[in-house]
Design brief:
single chain, 358 residues, Aspartate Aminotransferase, domain 2, 2 domains, 3-stranded antiparallel beta sheet, 15 strands, globular, binds pyridoxal-5'-phosphate
Length: 358
């Protein structure tokens, strides 16, 4: 069976070495030695000034919305994983959708201003499939209207824009270290920000608001990464170059062998150093997608319809139609992409796709 992705399993001996440290320290969580070391190593690997590790990629979104959303209207994208929208609703804010760009698949920055009202407090946009948003235009709009900017950068581990980590853009950026993501800790995530003020607020927010054992800065939640998860991160991180090289080869195979008269691929924004995190293809229409999907499934190959459905159609959302997002969501699929996918498997996948598209 071939699935859309496959979690990277580092050599078990390497993981055992990290676990041995935990047993020696007799320390399992509450920002132990391994979490602190992982944060330092990530700062260095990603070239960012500040990293706060969290227990998944959703909690930092909720922390960001709690700190910056202020219960207001959040301008957001309908084309993302459900967590982007559900976090807004969960934090008692109101999602206001703005449609996406048909080729970059990120929020269409030219449509943001029309959606701003006196209740708007922030923009929450996703760097879709590791492709960066138009961060410059979004920053200009935020300055003009005094809005905060949050980026769901769950897909963007290692992506840079004009040479800078995408995690550096916006007031707060978040990442997911879920098992299926490019870099993982099993479950995990991180929050990135650029000011001492947000650094302090997000830090206490992720640890119950603690300021020492008996004092509290303010309200908080438990968003801590454990030592066991950090051990996985420290074991996986040295393999990132290997993982990226393998993924780059898979992407190159698809790029040269898919029939691009019949399908189209993601358009990467200029100046973006992309991270090979997903390989979405767009079919002519949903019928073609379903036809190809069935043929692949019959061969035990399981791509995923990322992202489907368009989030403005969720049953707990009130929204106007988002024609571009709904159209894209109906005809896009992410193809298998992971370290260890063989050339033979790729030949098989591509042959089935090219044979079944019309
Ligand atoms: C994976 C993902 C999340 C959620 O991350 P978790 O670590 O699973 O909580 C949020 N947003 C996007 C775009 C994602 O792909």
């Amino acid at each position: 069976m071939i699935t859309v992705t496959k979690a990277f399993f580092p050599p078990i001996e390497d993981y055992q070495k990290q676990l041995q440290r935990i047993w020696s320290n007799q320390w399992l969580t509450n920002r132990g030695e391994l979490v602190l070391e992982l944060e330092e190593k990530l700062k260095n690997y990603l070239q960012v000034p500040h990293v706060l590790c969290t227990n998944n990629g959703t909690i930092p979104l909720q922390i960001a919305l709690k700190l910056l959303g202020n219960g207001g209207e959040i301008i957001t994208t309908p084309f993302s994983y459900v967590a982007t929208t559900s976090a807004i609703v969960w934090e008692n804010c109101t999602p206001v959708f703005v449609d996406i760009h048909p080729e970059y698949l990120t929020i269409d920055e030219t449509k943001i201003e029309a959606a701003i009202t006196p209740k708007t407090t922030a923009i929450l946009a996703t760097h879709v499939f590791g492709n960066s948003c138009n961060v410059e235009a979004i920053k200009a709009i935020a300055l003009k209207y005094n809005l905060k900017v949050i980026y769901d950068a769950a897909h963007s581990f290692g992506t840079t824009y004009k040479g800078t980590s995408v995690f550096e853009f916006g007031d707060i950026s978040t990442c997911s270290f879920h098992a299926t993501k490019l870099f993982h800790t099993g479950e995990g995530g991180a929050l990135f920000c650029n000011t001492k003020d947000f650094e302090l607020q997000s830090f206490y927010s992720h640890n119950f608001g603690h300021n020492g054992p008996e004092d509290f800065y303010g309200v908080g939640i438990n968003g801590k990464l454990s030592e066991l998860q950090a051990a996985m991160g420290l074991t996986v991180l040295p393999f990132m170059d290997t993982i990226l090289k393998a993924r780059k080869k898979v992407v190159a195979y698809y790029n040269t062998h898919l029939n691009f008269n019949k399908v189209s691929a993601l358009k990467i924004r200029a100046h973006t150093q992309w991270n090979y995190s997903y390989y979405p293809v767009l079919f002519k229409d949903e019928a073609t997608l379903l036809n190809v999907q069935e043929a692949l499934n019959n061969a035990d190959i399981f791509p995923r319809r990322y992202f489907y459905p368009s989030l403005n159609t969720l049953n707990y959302i009130k929204s106007t139609a988002m024609p571009v997002s709904e159209n894209i969501a109906a005809r896009i699929v992410c193809l298998p992409l992971y370290n260890g996918l063989s050339e033979k498997e790729l030949q098989h996948i591509v042959a089935i796709i090219n044979k079944n598209i019309c």
